[in-house]
Amino acid sequence: MRGIVxxxxxxxxxxxxxxxxxxxxxxxRGDVPAEGSADEIVVQFQSNHxxxxxxxxxxxxxxxxxxxxxxxxxxxxxxxIDLHTHRHRQDPEVRxxxxxxxxxxxxxxxxxxxxxxxRHPWHAAxxxxxxxxxxxxxxxxxxxxxxxxxIGLDRVKGPDLGLQRSVLIExxxxxxxxxxxxxxxxxxxxxxxxxxxxxxxxTNPWIIHGFTGxxxxxxxxxxxxxxxxxxxxxxxxxxKVREALTHVPTDRMFFETDEGSTAIQVIYRTAADVLGVSQxxxxxxxxxxxxxxxGVEA
Length: 298
Prior knowledge:
This protein is about 35% helix and about 15% strand. By secondary structure, the chain is α/β, with parallel strands linked by helices. The protein folds into two domains: about 80 residues, no CATH class; about 220 residues, TIM Barrel (Alpha-Beta Barrel). Strands 1-2-3-4-5-6-7-8 form an eight-stranded parallel sheet, sandwiched between helices. Helix 6 links the parallel strand 5 and strand 6. Helix 4 runs parallel beside helix 5. The protein is globular, with a radius of gyration of 22 Å.
């Protein structure tokens, strides 16, 4: 989210409008990589309230005390977007879209801040039912559920492709009707998805998660309107997916952790190096992509 992230600060008698007009940027190296030198914290603090205070010694000391209390609680003004994950991580610098199964949507009294819901192709052995359609529709009524997924096709693992396809189409229909993005699992079935996309003519975003293909395949998918999400495969030096990343316009990409243990910040750092942009710029672009694709602000 652009601007400061609200946080609890136990500082007595701070005027309520003290944060009304400020810009804060905190970047620190360590376990979580970011731009800047080791342990660097850069703060740009501008406040109408402070600017109106007399520049007396006591007022300056008061302002410094406020800053010292606030600094430990500051978050990045632009978060890292983790487009697809199955892990419930608690990281104030990250906004994750957590993938829920159809069954999980029934047992979550409180949904994650952002989530997707759907029936994975590995679990498509039984036909789609009206009851399952109702479960997915109910999930999409929750403001936290911003996408249908993880759904798709897998020619390596799972039931017969025909069964997978019928379950996929039912979910694509719901996503198109609600005009929400779909997050797609695709293993050796890109030609099938390209054919489906062309046949259906859907206009809601179709995002292939965990893309590991080559540049030519990326370009084929892009021409048909797909977006691509990249994960841990980028960390392998010399991997074909690194070259593929350079074929993708920055407004058509996302990054993710899926089921991996690597922090999303590490994936952003690698992607920024491959693309030749700063991490802060990449975060800003992903935030813009997220708002444009999902209609919500992270």
